[in-house]
Specification:
Blueprint (H helix, E strand, L loop, with lengths): L2 H7 L4 E12 L2 E13 L2 H10 L4 E5 L5 E4 L15
Antiparallel strand pairs: 1-2, 1-3, 2-4
């Protein structure tokens, strides 16, 4: 389902969705198609669902005109070498 359709069906609320089609552009993920798992009317429940979501599932609010997520690389873990003397 296109995001515009989701916004029409579930106006001004959070929805739990699964990403079906997307592309990367300038370090941003542009999600084009989603499958709606369920609407989430309560913001507290939306937070719970967000933190328990896995893989391609996420929570998003339909007030957003598009689903565009900034992708950040994980920072490299640096450690100082040990003195092995």
């Amino acid at each position: 389902m296109l995001w515009t359709e989701v916004r029409e069906l579930f106006p001004d609320q959070f929805v739990l969705v699964e990403e079906l089609k997307s592309h990367y552009e300038d370090n941003k993920l542009h999600v084009e198609e989603v499958a709606v798992i369920k609407p989430i009317p309560d913001p507290k429940e939306a937070w719970k669902e967000l933190f328990s979501a896995k893989n391609e599932r996420f929570v998003y609010h339909t007030s957003n005109k598009a689903i565009i997520v900034e992708v950040r690389d994980k920072p490299m873990v640096r450690r100082t070498p040990r003195d092995e003397s």
